[in-house]
Amino acid sequence: MIAVLCGGVGAARFLLGLRGVVEEQAITAIVNTGDDLDWNTLRVCPDLDTITYTLSGRNASTGWGLEGESWNALAGLERFGAERWFGIGDTDLATHLFRSQALADGTVLHEVTKQISSAFGISMNIVPMTNDSVRTRLTTVDGEEIDFQEYFVHRRHEVAVRSIRFDGVDHATPAPGVIEALERSEAIIIAPSNPLVSIGPILAVRPIAEVLERRRDHVAAISPIIGGRALKGPADRLLVELGHRSSAAGVAALLARFARTMIIDELDRGEVGEIEGLGMRCVVTRTLMDEPGVARDLARTVLDALGVTAVDEVKPDR
Ligand code: GDP
Ligand code: CA
User: Fold this and answer.
1) What pLDDT is stored for residue 316 in this prediction?
2) How would DSSP label each residue in 198-245?
3) Cα(1) to centroid of ligand 2, in Å?
4) Ligand 1 pocket at CB < 6 A
5) Which domains, from first to last, does the chain contain?
6) Which of 142, 189, 309, 313 has a CA that sits 20 to 30 A from residue 163's CA?
7) How far is CA 231 from its chain centroid?
Protein backbone atom coordinates (compact mmCIF):
# COMPACT_ATOMS: atom_id res chain seq x y z
CA MET A 1 0.00 0.00 0.00
CA ILE A 2 1.20 3.49 -0.89
CA ALA A 3 -0.20 6.75 0.52
CA VAL A 4 0.25 10.11 -1.19
CA LEU A 5 -0.49 13.55 0.30
CA CYS A 6 -1.94 15.62 -2.51
CA GLY A 7 -2.83 19.10 -3.66
CA GLY A 8 -4.14 19.52 -7.20
CA VAL A 9 -2.17 19.70 -10.43
CA GLY A 10 1.33 18.68 -9.24
CA ALA A 11 -0.10 15.74 -7.33
CA ALA A 12 -2.36 14.65 -10.18
CA ARG A 13 0.59 14.52 -12.55
CA PHE A 14 2.55 12.42 -10.09
CA LEU A 15 -0.35 10.03 -9.47
CA LEU A 16 -0.59 9.36 -13.22
CA GLY A 17 3.01 8.16 -13.06
CA LEU A 18 2.59 6.22 -9.82
CA ARG A 19 -0.40 4.41 -11.29
CA GLY A 20 1.92 3.13 -13.99
CA VAL A 21 4.20 1.36 -11.52
CA VAL A 22 1.90 0.32 -8.65
CA GLU A 23 -1.52 -1.35 -8.81
CA GLU A 24 -4.02 1.49 -8.72
CA GLN A 25 -6.06 -0.16 -5.91
CA ALA A 26 -2.98 -0.13 -3.69
CA ILE A 27 -2.75 3.68 -3.79
CA THR A 28 -4.50 6.02 -1.34
CA ALA A 29 -4.46 9.68 -2.36
CA ILE A 30 -5.11 11.89 0.68
CA VAL A 31 -6.27 15.18 -0.72
CA ASN A 32 -6.32 18.79 0.50
CA THR A 33 -9.79 20.24 1.06
CA GLY A 34 -8.68 23.65 2.33
CA ASP A 35 -9.38 25.05 -1.18
CA ASP A 36 -13.03 23.96 -1.06
CA LEU A 37 -15.69 26.56 -1.57
CA ASP A 38 -19.41 27.04 -1.69
CA TRP A 39 -20.37 28.30 -5.10
CA ASN A 40 -24.00 29.27 -5.66
CA THR A 41 -25.02 26.81 -2.91
CA LEU A 42 -22.87 24.03 -4.39
CA ARG A 43 -19.85 22.42 -2.71
CA VAL A 44 -16.83 22.58 -4.99
CA CYS A 45 -13.67 20.61 -4.09
CA PRO A 46 -11.04 21.77 -6.59
CA ASP A 47 -8.16 19.50 -5.57
CA LEU A 48 -10.30 16.35 -5.35
CA ASP A 49 -11.81 17.16 -8.73
CA THR A 50 -8.48 17.97 -10.41
CA ILE A 51 -7.20 14.56 -9.34
CA THR A 52 -10.35 12.73 -10.38
CA TYR A 53 -10.55 14.45 -13.75
CA THR A 54 -6.83 13.99 -14.45
CA LEU A 55 -6.84 10.29 -13.59
CA SER A 56 -9.93 9.82 -15.76
CA GLY A 57 -7.99 11.33 -18.66
CA ARG A 58 -10.64 14.01 -19.13
CA ASN A 59 -8.99 16.99 -17.47
CA ALA A 60 -8.68 20.29 -19.30
CA SER A 61 -5.19 21.51 -20.16
CA THR A 62 -5.68 24.49 -17.82
CA GLY A 63 -5.29 22.07 -14.89
CA TRP A 64 -8.84 22.55 -13.62
CA GLY A 65 -12.17 21.45 -15.04
CA LEU A 66 -12.93 19.06 -17.88
CA GLU A 67 -11.84 19.15 -21.49
CA GLY A 68 -14.35 20.12 -24.16
CA GLU A 69 -16.63 21.91 -21.73
CA SER A 70 -19.61 24.10 -22.62
CA TRP A 71 -20.36 27.13 -20.43
CA ASN A 72 -24.11 27.59 -20.77
CA ALA A 73 -24.97 27.54 -17.09
CA LEU A 74 -22.35 30.16 -16.31
CA ALA A 75 -23.56 32.34 -19.19
CA GLY A 76 -27.12 31.87 -17.94
CA LEU A 77 -26.12 33.03 -14.47
CA GLU A 78 -24.58 36.14 -15.94
CA ARG A 79 -28.02 37.21 -17.08
CA PHE A 80 -28.80 37.71 -13.39
CA GLY A 81 -25.69 39.77 -12.84
CA ALA A 82 -23.70 36.96 -11.22
CA GLU A 83 -19.93 37.33 -11.18
CA ARG A 84 -18.12 35.05 -13.53
CA TRP A 85 -14.58 34.83 -12.20
CA PHE A 86 -14.91 31.27 -10.93
CA GLY A 87 -15.33 29.10 -14.01
CA ILE A 88 -17.62 26.09 -13.72
CA GLY A 89 -18.34 24.28 -16.98
CA ASP A 90 -21.61 22.47 -17.57
CA THR A 91 -20.28 18.92 -17.10
CA ASP A 92 -18.19 19.99 -14.10
CA LEU A 93 -21.37 21.53 -12.71
CA ALA A 94 -22.97 18.07 -12.70
CA THR A 95 -20.23 16.84 -10.34
CA HIS A 96 -20.93 19.65 -7.90
CA LEU A 97 -24.70 19.15 -8.13
CA PHE A 98 -24.30 15.45 -7.42
CA ARG A 99 -21.91 16.05 -4.51
CA SER A 100 -24.01 18.78 -2.95
CA GLN A 101 -27.21 16.75 -3.15
CA ALA A 102 -25.47 13.73 -1.61
CA LEU A 103 -24.08 15.88 1.21
CA ALA A 104 -27.53 17.38 1.78
CA ASP A 105 -28.92 13.83 1.99
CA GLY A 106 -26.45 13.06 4.76
CA THR A 107 -23.75 11.21 2.82
CA VAL A 108 -20.33 12.24 4.09
CA LEU A 109 -17.64 13.72 1.86
CA HIS A 110 -15.35 10.68 1.66
CA GLU A 111 -18.29 8.50 0.58
CA VAL A 112 -19.42 10.97 -2.09
CA THR A 113 -15.82 11.27 -3.24
CA LYS A 114 -15.67 7.48 -3.69
CA GLN A 115 -18.93 7.54 -5.66
CA ILE A 116 -17.61 10.31 -7.91
CA SER A 117 -14.23 8.70 -8.59
CA SER A 118 -15.87 5.31 -9.26
CA ALA A 119 -18.28 6.93 -11.70
CA PHE A 120 -15.21 8.30 -13.50
CA GLY A 121 -13.80 4.77 -13.70
CA ILE A 122 -11.05 5.27 -11.13
CA SER A 123 -10.13 2.46 -8.75
CA MET A 124 -7.49 4.44 -6.84
CA ASN A 125 -8.62 5.28 -3.32
CA ILE A 126 -9.10 9.06 -3.43
CA VAL A 127 -10.00 10.47 0.01
CA PRO A 128 -10.41 13.97 1.36
CA MET A 129 -8.04 14.74 4.26
CA THR A 130 -11.12 15.31 6.44
CA ASN A 131 -14.91 15.28 6.21
CA ASP A 132 -14.97 18.38 8.40
CA SER A 133 -14.96 21.91 7.06
CA VAL A 134 -11.46 23.40 6.83
CA ARG A 135 -11.02 26.64 4.89
CA THR A 136 -7.71 28.20 3.93
CA ARG A 137 -7.76 31.94 4.69
CA LEU A 138 -5.05 34.35 3.66
CA THR A 139 -4.28 37.75 5.11
CA THR A 140 -2.91 40.18 2.55
CA VAL A 141 -0.18 42.70 3.31
CA ASP A 142 -2.97 45.27 3.58
CA GLY A 143 -4.45 43.31 6.48
CA GLU A 144 -7.48 42.03 4.61
CA GLU A 145 -8.43 38.38 5.21
CA ILE A 146 -9.71 36.57 2.13
CA ASP A 147 -10.79 33.07 1.07
CA PHE A 148 -8.40 30.90 -0.87
CA GLN A 149 -10.29 31.08 -4.17
CA GLU A 150 -10.70 34.86 -3.84
CA TYR A 151 -6.90 34.99 -3.63
CA PHE A 152 -6.08 32.28 -6.15
CA VAL A 153 -8.66 32.80 -8.88
CA HIS A 154 -10.29 36.21 -8.49
CA ARG A 155 -7.10 38.10 -7.64
CA ARG A 156 -4.95 35.70 -9.69
CA HIS A 157 -2.62 35.29 -6.68
CA GLU A 158 -1.18 38.72 -7.46
CA VAL A 159 -1.61 40.23 -3.99
CA ALA A 160 1.16 39.79 -1.45
CA VAL A 161 0.27 37.67 1.57
CA ARG A 162 1.25 38.20 5.19
CA SER A 163 -0.16 35.06 6.82
CA ILE A 164 -2.19 31.93 6.19
CA ARG A 165 -4.49 30.02 8.51
CA PHE A 166 -6.71 26.98 8.13
CA ASP A 167 -10.07 27.83 9.61
CA GLY A 168 -11.63 24.83 11.40
CA VAL A 169 -8.53 22.63 11.33
CA ASP A 170 -8.16 22.47 15.12
CA HIS A 171 -11.42 20.53 15.34
CA ALA A 172 -10.99 18.54 12.12
CA THR A 173 -10.50 14.80 12.31
CA PRO A 174 -9.00 12.78 9.46
CA ALA A 175 -11.54 11.19 7.12
CA PRO A 176 -12.16 7.47 7.76
CA GLY A 177 -9.36 5.41 6.24
CA VAL A 178 -6.77 8.19 6.24
CA ILE A 179 -4.90 7.21 9.41
CA GLU A 180 -5.22 3.49 8.60
CA ALA A 181 -3.69 4.09 5.15
CA LEU A 182 -0.84 6.12 6.63
CA GLU A 183 -0.18 3.49 9.29
CA ARG A 184 -0.22 0.56 6.88
CA SER A 185 1.56 2.02 3.86
CA GLU A 186 5.05 0.83 3.05
CA ALA A 187 5.67 4.23 1.51
CA ILE A 188 4.18 7.67 2.21
CA ILE A 189 4.83 10.25 -0.49
CA ILE A 190 4.32 14.00 -0.22
CA ALA A 191 3.46 14.97 -3.80
CA PRO A 192 5.07 17.99 -5.51
CA SER A 193 2.25 20.30 -4.49
CA ASN A 194 2.28 23.76 -2.97
CA PRO A 195 3.86 23.17 0.48
CA LEU A 196 1.99 26.05 2.14
CA VAL A 197 -1.55 25.93 0.77
CA SER A 198 -1.86 22.35 -0.52
CA ILE A 199 0.30 20.21 1.79
CA GLY A 200 0.08 22.73 4.66
CA PRO A 201 -3.64 22.16 5.38
CA ILE A 202 -3.20 18.36 5.37
CA LEU A 203 -0.32 18.53 7.85
CA ALA A 204 -2.34 20.95 9.98
CA VAL A 205 -4.75 18.09 10.73
CA ARG A 206 -3.01 17.01 13.96
CA PRO A 207 -3.43 13.22 13.82
CA ILE A 208 -2.09 13.17 10.24
CA ALA A 209 1.01 15.15 11.25
CA GLU A 210 1.55 12.82 14.19
CA VAL A 211 1.58 9.66 12.06
CA LEU A 212 4.02 11.22 9.62
CA GLU A 213 6.36 12.31 12.41
CA ARG A 214 6.29 8.80 13.83
CA ARG A 215 6.71 7.11 10.43
CA ARG A 216 9.18 9.67 9.09
CA ASP A 217 11.61 6.98 7.86
CA HIS A 218 8.96 5.81 5.37
CA VAL A 219 8.11 9.30 4.10
CA ALA A 220 9.55 10.97 1.00
CA ALA A 221 8.70 14.48 -0.23
CA ILE A 222 9.07 15.65 -3.83
CA SER A 223 9.99 19.30 -4.28
CA PRO A 224 7.49 21.37 -6.27
CA ILE A 225 10.16 24.04 -6.57
CA ILE A 226 12.64 23.57 -9.40
CA GLY A 227 15.47 26.04 -9.90
CA GLY A 228 13.93 28.33 -7.31
CA ARG A 229 10.59 28.58 -9.12
CA ALA A 230 7.16 27.02 -9.04
CA LEU A 231 6.06 25.58 -12.38
CA LYS A 232 2.58 26.91 -11.83
CA GLY A 233 0.87 29.01 -9.21
CA PRO A 234 2.19 31.15 -6.37
CA ALA A 235 4.26 28.63 -4.34
CA ASP A 236 7.53 30.49 -4.97
CA ARG A 237 6.17 33.92 -4.05
CA LEU A 238 4.23 32.65 -1.05
CA LEU A 239 7.33 30.95 0.34
CA VAL A 240 9.27 34.22 0.22
CA GLU A 241 6.37 36.35 1.49
CA LEU A 242 6.02 34.09 4.52
CA GLY A 243 9.70 34.12 5.38
CA HIS A 244 10.88 30.86 3.82
CA ARG A 245 13.19 30.34 0.89
CA SER A 246 11.89 29.60 -2.58
CA SER A 247 14.18 26.64 -3.22
CA ALA A 248 14.17 22.87 -2.86
CA ALA A 249 16.07 23.36 0.41
CA GLY A 250 13.44 25.86 1.56
CA VAL A 251 10.72 23.26 0.97
CA ALA A 252 12.89 20.61 2.67
CA ALA A 253 13.21 22.80 5.77
CA LEU A 254 9.40 22.95 6.00
CA LEU A 255 9.00 19.19 5.63
CA ALA A 256 12.08 17.80 7.44
CA ARG A 257 10.01 16.96 10.53
CA PHE A 258 7.71 14.75 8.48
CA ALA A 259 9.93 13.21 5.82
CA ARG A 260 13.35 11.62 6.02
CA THR A 261 13.80 11.57 2.26
CA MET A 262 13.73 14.60 -0.03
CA ILE A 263 13.49 14.21 -3.81
CA ILE A 264 14.83 17.20 -5.73
CA ASP A 265 15.43 18.08 -9.36
CA GLU A 266 18.76 17.73 -11.16
CA LEU A 267 18.77 21.50 -11.54
CA ASP A 268 19.02 21.81 -7.74
CA ARG A 269 21.90 19.37 -7.26
CA GLY A 270 23.84 22.16 -5.53
CA GLU A 271 21.41 22.07 -2.58
CA VAL A 272 22.09 18.44 -1.57
CA GLY A 273 24.52 19.34 1.23
CA GLU A 274 22.15 21.89 2.70
CA ILE A 275 19.26 19.40 2.65
CA GLU A 276 21.37 16.66 4.24
CA GLY A 277 22.26 19.22 6.88
CA LEU A 278 18.55 19.22 7.83
CA GLY A 279 18.85 15.54 8.73
CA MET A 280 17.31 14.34 5.48
CA ARG A 281 18.44 11.95 2.81
CA CYS A 282 18.47 13.66 -0.56
CA VAL A 283 17.81 12.01 -3.91
CA VAL A 284 18.47 13.93 -7.13
CA THR A 285 16.47 13.01 -10.23
CA ARG A 286 14.38 14.46 -13.04
CA THR A 287 11.20 15.82 -11.46
CA LEU A 288 9.76 17.94 -14.26
CA MET A 289 6.88 15.77 -15.44
CA ASP A 290 6.59 17.35 -18.87
CA GLU A 291 6.74 14.16 -20.92
CA PRO A 292 4.90 10.88 -20.60
CA GLY A 293 7.18 8.49 -18.82
CA VAL A 294 8.92 11.06 -16.61
CA ALA A 295 6.25 10.79 -13.92
CA ARG A 296 6.55 7.02 -14.03
CA ASP A 297 10.33 7.13 -13.72
CA LEU A 298 9.98 9.63 -10.87
CA ALA A 299 7.50 7.35 -9.09
CA ARG A 300 9.89 4.42 -9.51
CA THR A 301 12.78 6.46 -8.10
CA VAL A 302 10.74 7.58 -5.08
CA LEU A 303 9.61 4.03 -4.29
CA ASP A 304 13.14 2.79 -4.74
CA ALA A 305 14.42 5.41 -2.30
CA LEU A 306 11.90 4.12 0.25
CA GLY A 307 12.91 0.51 -0.37
CA VAL A 308 9.67 -0.46 -2.09
CA THR A 309 9.82 -2.43 -5.33
CA ALA A 310 7.71 -0.99 -8.10
CA VAL A 311 5.80 -3.27 -10.43
CA ASP A 312 6.90 -2.90 -14.03
CA GLU A 313 4.45 -1.21 -16.36
CA VAL A 314 1.17 -1.96 -14.62
CA LYS A 315 -0.80 -0.68 -17.57
CA PRO A 316 -0.19 1.75 -20.38
CA ASP A 317 -0.99 5.44 -19.94
CA ARG A 318 -4.52 6.25 -20.88
P1 GDP B 1 -2.98 23.20 -7.32
O2 GDP B 1 -3.70 22.77 -6.08
O3 GDP B 1 -3.67 22.77 -8.57
O4 GDP B 1 -2.54 24.61 -7.31
O5 GDP B 1 -1.71 22.33 -7.39
P6 GDP B 1 -0.61 21.75 -6.45
O7 GDP B 1 -0.48 22.42 -5.14
O8 GDP B 1 -0.70 20.27 -6.50
O9 GDP B 1 0.55 22.10 -7.40
C10 GDP B 1 1.18 23.31 -7.53
C11 GDP B 1 2.65 23.00 -7.47
O12 GDP B 1 2.95 21.85 -8.25
C13 GDP B 1 3.48 24.12 -8.00
O14 GDP B 1 4.31 24.57 -6.97
C15 GDP B 1 4.31 23.45 -9.12
O16 GDP B 1 5.65 23.89 -9.13
C17 GDP B 1 4.23 21.98 -8.79
N18 GDP B 1 4.33 21.14 -9.97
C19 GDP B 1 3.47 21.09 -11.01
N20 GDP B 1 3.93 20.24 -11.96
C21 GDP B 1 5.12 19.75 -11.48
C22 GDP B 1 6.09 18.86 -12.01
O23 GDP B 1 5.98 18.32 -13.12
N24 GDP B 1 7.20 18.59 -11.23
C25 GDP B 1 7.38 19.15 -10.01
N26 GDP B 1 8.47 18.85 -9.31
N27 GDP B 1 6.48 20.03 -9.50
C28 GDP B 1 5.37 20.32 -10.22
CA1 CA C 1 -5.32 23.45 -4.85
Assistant:
1) 56
2) THHHHHTSHHHHHHHHHTGGGEEEE-SEETTEESSSSHHHHHHHTT--
3) 25
4) 7-11, 13, 47, 50, 63, 192-194, 198, 222-224, 226, 230-233, 235, 287-289
5) 2-35+127-135+168-305 (3.40.50.10680)
6) 189
7) 14
